[in-house]
Amino acid sequence: MMNKKSKIVLVGGGSTWTPGILKAMTTHLKQFPLEKITLYDIDEERQKVIGEFAKILFKEEAPDVKVSYTTDEKEAYTDVDFVFCQMRTGGFEMRDKDEKIPLQHGVIGQETCGPGGFAYGLRSIRDMEKMVKSVRQFSPDAWILNYTNPAAIVALALDKIFPKEDKVLNICDQPVNLLRSFASLIDFDANDFEPVYFGLNHYGWFTHLYDQTGKDRMPEIKEIILNGGFRPVDAEQRDQSWLDTYAMVEDMLKDFPEYLPNTYLQYYLYPEYKLSKMDPNRTRTDEVREGRETKVFNECRRIVENGTAKDSSVVHNDAHGDMMVEVAASIAHNLRKTYVVMVRNNGIVSNLPNDSMVEVAASLGANGPHPYAVGEIDTFYKGLIESQHAYEKLTVEAYMEESYTKALQALTMNRTVVDAKKARKLLDALIEANKGYWPELN
Ligand SMILES: NC(=O)c1ccc[n+]([C@@H]2O[C@H](COP(=O)([O-])OP(=O)(O)OC[C@H]3O[C@@H](n4cnc5c(N)ncnc54)[C@H](O)[C@@H]3O)[C@@H](O)[C@H]2O)c1
Ligand SMILES: O=P(O)(O)OC[C@H]1O[C@H](O[C@H]2[C@H](O)[C@@H](O)[C@@H](O)O[C@@H]2CO)[C@H](O)[C@@H](O)[C@@H]1O
Ligand SMILES: [Mn+2]
């Protein structure tokens, strides 16, 4: 079975993350043998730079794998086993607005949380719906592995729009990235953790981190963080804003010592403090454009010019690429490894709505995710998650029903907004900024 070679298409082939994912593919060929890789993007220019780099990388590392790139949907989606999807509708130009418009209204400006995530969500759903329909037209049985953000809203929307789909899986790399960082504190291999995790995407908690002997290592990890703070395992590659974000885990742990939180909870638990640290004129998009985007595209151009990727330092493996490839391998070869993924609740967390898309640990094999039961959660977490789920659901309904009222309800529900007058002003500004991307809300 392991000899079966997979055929992949990477949607958003011109993404800043693509070179890292391609690199991870070259280092995982034994676990995940490949027949062909197609890169697909709507932006021809971005796609060409990364596509030419891909050809060189594979010529040097795995010449048997067929590599191509295209802006043609039919060519991209025909005869594939896996669709890796990581698109950004509106690009960094719109991410910039997602972050800066809320800040102009005195609200957190973030890619996936608060009004920024709401705006990005309403943009992503339309392109994601179109992608699923096109993939099904040309490759009815392909697995669609989605990373496109805001993954929480995308996951819920796809579940509502395609309720019978059982080969779409939404995933985030933040849990695995956190696991790697926790593991480094106790000199442990993150792959050996058996985690218990619950929540919504970018809105969850680890409750246990068992090792191979069955011992829960969480108490010891919490102690280390409370005494010495917390940094990402790849701290040397991180911008200051990510180091500040990881450092907030210590604050969250001091206030709520029960579980280890996802870093994104900082925006919901400390909106005023986080807002005071944000600069409305310079947000994460500026950092990414000047940093990762510039570096990745310059490096790919340099590699294409030199005709070799052998000396490249930018194209490294990280949690993101590794996880995308390992998750696909677990499905393709029925490895039944455990990953934290998004699935319809249906009783996994017994006191949360059945139709929420929860993020939990699941065994992942050829028949998809088999999630582990979590059971009942306590009032604090239940309350937080239920309000966030209501916000997500109203956002999806606003899209599906093209409803201004539901959109206003969604923003008012969000913990980073709360005030309805503020929500209305924000909504009107976001409608103006997202013309052509959002459905018209009536
Ligand atoms: N789930 C996670 O944990 C996780 C982790 C990292 C990145 N991401 C997501 O991955 C995506 C890419 O991030 P990035 O920072 O590299 O952005 P990026 O803008 O560099 O890349 C996105 C690419 O998608 C292309 N694109 C836009 N709309 C498209 C469409 N309809 N069809 C095909 N391609 C399309 C763009 O042209 C661009 O080249 C984002 O959605 C980001 O939020 C998710
Ligand atoms: O602000 P960005 O574009 O740098 O990142 C936004 C993404 O952040 C998380 O991803 C982490 C990822 O977990 C880690 O492995 C590493 O690759 O860094 C990324 C951030 O730099 C988050 O899970 C994603 O959803 C965000 O898109
Ligand atoms: Mn994520």
Automatic annotation (TrEMBL):
Q: Does the keyword Metal-binding apply?
A: yes
Q: Which InterPro entries does the entry mention?
A: GlycHydrolase_4_CS, Glyco_hydro_4, Glyco_hydro_4_C, Lactate_DH/Glyco_Ohase_4_C, NAD(P)-bd_dom_sf
Name assigned to this protein: 6-phospho-alpha-glucosidase
Record Pfam families? Glyco_hydro_4, Glyco_hydro_4C
Needed cofactors: NAD(+)
- Which UniProt key words apply to this protein? Glycosidase, Hydrolase, Manganese, Metal-binding, NAD
Q: Which family does it belong to?
A: Belongs to the glycosyl hydrolase 4 family.
Species source reads Marinilactibacillus psychrotolerans
Q: Which domain of life is it from?
A: Bacteria
The record's CDD domains line, in alphabetical order, gives: GH4_GlvA_pagL_like
Per the annotation, how and in what number is the cofactor bound?
A: Binds 1 NAD(+) per subunit.
Glycosyl hydrolase family 4 C-terminal domain: from which residue to which, for each copy?
A: 197-417
